[in-house]
Design brief:
Blueprint: H1 2-21, E1 23-37, E2 46-58, E3 63-80, E4 83-103, E5 106-124, E6 127-130, E7 138-149, E8 154-163, H2 171-174, E9 180-192
Antiparallel strand pairs: 1-2, 1-9, 2-3, 3-4, 4-5, 5-6, 5-7, 7-8, 8-9
């Protein structure tokens, strides 16, 4: 019974110490998104946004893990027969970043990202076409970036998401068998509470 009590006390204090070191935060920023692939030469990038929450979990003095939950607006634009067409794909992204601090507050970051499609549409003029069923509902990618964190909790980040999954889930609709993938430059500002 004593061993169980001692174990419970140690677990409680260990959890309290760990929670004191874990930092929760929020972030938002701008996306410079594009769609890449064999048949995407006529697509241009779009400027959009991302917003969400993050948790920084220190592993050592120089290394942390930072899982995030982000809403991210992505896509591309093109012109066809004089009409501008916007391909809008919106995701809930879950990046899991490994952060290595190379200097006080400055970190190199890399890690995988899981993306879950929320909606997808083509907009042009007054017309909007839902293409959610034609776009792959899951997006996997890898992130690379830099971060800078001030003692106040304010932080800044620059990141590139290299999409690895094929977004083309309906080659007949897109009139192409070729894969297309997401690519997103993100610039963020955040705050750890």
């Amino acid at each position: 019974m004593r061993k169980l009590f001692l174990f419970m006390v140690m677990a409680f204090f260990g959890t309290a110490i760990l929670q004191a070191q874990v930092k929760f935060g929020a972030k938002a920023g701008v996306n410079f998104a594009s769609i890449t692939g064999e048949d995407t030469d006529d697509l241009d990038g779009i400027t959009s946004f991302h917003i969400g929450a993050m948790v920084e979990i220190p592993v050592s003095e120089k290394f942390s893990v930072q899982p995030e939950l982000l809403y991210s607006a992505q896509g591309a634009t093109t012109s066809e027969d004089g009409m501008d067409l916007d391909f809008k794909v919106n995701y809930i992204n879950v990046p899991i970043m490994a952060k290595y601090f190379v200097a006080e507050g400055l970190s190199l970051e890399a890690g995988p990202q899981l993306g879950f499609l929320i909606d997808a549409e083509i907009e042009g003029g007054d017309v909007s076409i839902d293409i959610k069923d034609q776009v792959n509902s899951f997006d996997f990618g890898v992130n690379f970036g830099l971060g800078y964190k001030l003692d106040s909790g304010l932080n800044f980040g620059a990141r590139y998401n290299l999409g690895l999954s094929d977004g083309n889930d309906d080659p007949e609709f897109f009139e192409s068998e070729e894969a297309f993938k997401n690519g997103v430059f993100q610039f963020s500002i955040g705050y750890f509470f």
